[in-house]
């Protein structure tokens, strides 16, 4: 792990001004380590950048896109802002919670799905919108939610 | 150029409706018929409104179609391309797509910001240059920096991020501040719910933004710039990264730009999911690698910004206006819009309207025109009930205020805010308590926690609204809500908390009757809120034999 992280930090240092390396580094690390930043990784980053570990965690826990806990294989982010809400977004949220049997911030016991809420994704032309890892899905309905989850479950068998 | 061009809108909204698939299918059909020398199938950015399908235009005929499935693609190909017959039932008039409200008055010139969006291939810098791209930069570099600032000042351009601060003035402050290093930042942290104009501008015409930023850099004496984009905007990030590379290759960025001796470097920084980062000082903190917590103001960024240096921060749409103003002059720009807010505004139409999407119209347009003329009215023929203008921190209005002309002063004058240009429509099936609760939950979630009035205020507001929506509202609740809103507005640290009263007071005041109808009632008057069943008192009586 150490080599990977040192390499990421070095690469970020090359393209950045002196003090703005941290966020880009964390983005990169999260990409490599399955949607979260392991405690060991945070420690190495602090060492490499010569900043206290608390600084790293301050940033890490402030931004919603970073996670300190492992997540499911599929991270489902559902928009809870008004433009989706008024287009039956509430039903979509309900369907997700019912089908996955989890609430926001939780992961299914089989480790497949994590459910999160997100603010507006800027795709209101096709509201309601959800995001599964890096993919967007628009014009969602409870029925389409079920189809999507079934398909993802099937793919991971 | 080939005799026939088919343009397909492949922006991020259209992609979800199958745009890429349709594009490939068009290309397959062209190949199948050996028409590769005659027909070009190209991708472009958003052409405007989404009537529940992907917009395709056929040139040089200038016909616009809405494609919903493969069959539509096939019909357009077989009828229009092969036989030259237009497919009328799939056609949409150009005026509906591009939203040129004043076609008669200023003919085709209402698209100032979106001039190239939906017209060019955003990945090809050559197409941008062919449409006078980077000409404004060349012109600006021949002017004195002070002259550039003067031109922007005279144009009356105001910040399109929502606050409407005069752009030229901001530049002048930064210009006058003396420092060894200055910066230009683009606020592309588009997080205002319902707003997706900046996304479509960046995806459809990235070079206009880059050109605007270089001109700003030259004007204020900055040699470094950053574009701060939301981490969730994958496609905007990719397109902009490539565009920046191209601009370096062509010598529009880097050292000695166009032989002028002026140097400018541009970098892209990603956000990581924090709405408050859209506040300019919070954005600066985030670029510096810290949590995006707003700074105490003053000092303002023009004197003390990124890394403590003088910094210009402008929104994407604001920067895109700059090359147009430099090319055509301040007088030309002032012909559009209202006296206090010249130019156009890109609006995002969302919610229960027939056609959702972005439209660019002159400032001073009415909410009614936006919804009924460009948005095509309310979905399913239902009645309009509530419109939220300006984004989450914007005002909720009823049908009685639809004729207010929107510009930066409409909030002060009529209590209808322009904000980031969102027009969010909710029809009669929605309940105002539920809408208020959704918006205030957003504020609660996005409050950074730094100051008490915002952190605790939003929590108390959500608690009260939840209580009302459970059917347990108390008579004094509305007054308490008003009081908390006013306190948060007056005492919060930054714009986020300070703007709480705008949505909350407007919805409570404009729809007070419906709020009251929830209190002491058995069920939600609209049937949206799920009231808790009241415990029935056990009846004591004699059991019948």
Task: Note down, in words, how this protein is organized.
The complex is a heterodimer of chains A (157) and B (545). Chain A is an alpha+beta fold and 157 residues long. Chain A has two domains: 2-62; 74-155, Glutaredoxin, CATH 3.40.30.10. Chain A has helices spanning 2-15, 21-32, 39-49, 53-62, 82-100, 142-155, and strands spanning 74-79, 113-118, 130-132, 135-137. In chain A, strands 2-1-3-4 form a four-stranded mixed beta sheet, with helices on one face. In chain A, α3 (39-49) packs across α4. Chain A is elongated, with a radius of gyration of 18 Å. The mean pLDDT of chain A is 90. With 545 residues, chain B is of the alpha/beta class. Chain B is 41% helix and 15% strand. Chain B has helices spanning 12-15, 19-32, 70-83, 94-98, 103-106, 125-130, 135-141, 145-155, 167-176, 197-204, 206-220, 234-249, 280-287, 316-328, 330-334, 367-374, 410-414, 432-446, 452-469, 477-491, 495-498, 501-510, 512-518; strands at residues 4-9, 39-44, 49-50, 54-59, 63-67, 91-92, 183-188, 224-229, 265-270, 311-315, 344-351, 356-362, 384-389, 395-397, 422-427. Chain B has a six-stranded mixed beta sheet with strand order 3-12-11-15-13-14. In chain B, α12 links the parallel β8 and β9. In chain B, α7 runs parallel beside α11 (206-220) and α8 packs across α11. The relative contact order of chain B is 0.10. Residues 100-109 of chain B have low confidence and may be disordered. Classes of the chains: A alpha+beta (157), B alpha/beta (545). At the A-B interface, α2, α4 and α5 of A face α1, β9, β11, β15 and α18 of B.
